């Protein structure tokens, strides 16, 4: 049913709840693969560079932010991989999902940047409108 699952995650509480649902979906099939995508937009990238001169420190902080999600996937003994995308979150997720033909896309209803969401529209809304696969938005 859902063998190829795309999980968009930014480390927010909503993305952790989305990861729980992705785990449930993967367990239904048994041999699913989850691809966890984390999108770094231009503003975040600039801030990371300004606050940390060492690139390994920046990457380590990103891994720590996603640790609750990766821990959950490891504990469930699921097959998963991690992909970092660069760009605006909504279009980046849509492009990646459509190019890689996922069976379902799972993401939280809100992310870490509430101000951008209020002004520009939610990432989940953009993804739901444009991804060809079914989309599960978790509150």
From TrEMBL:
What sequence ranges are listed for the domain UspA? 1-139
Q: Which domain of life is it from?
A: Bacteria
CDD domains the UniProt entry points to: USP-like
- Report any Pfam family annotated for this entry: Usp
Q: By its UniProt entry, which InterPro entries does this protein fall under?
A: Rossmann-like_a/b/a_fold, Universal_stress_UspA, UspA
Family membership: Belongs to the universal stress protein A family.
**Annotated protein name in UniProt:** Universal stress protein family
Q: Which organism is it from?
A: Mesobacillus selenatarsenatis (strain DSM 18680 / JCM 14380 / FERM P-15431 / SF-1)
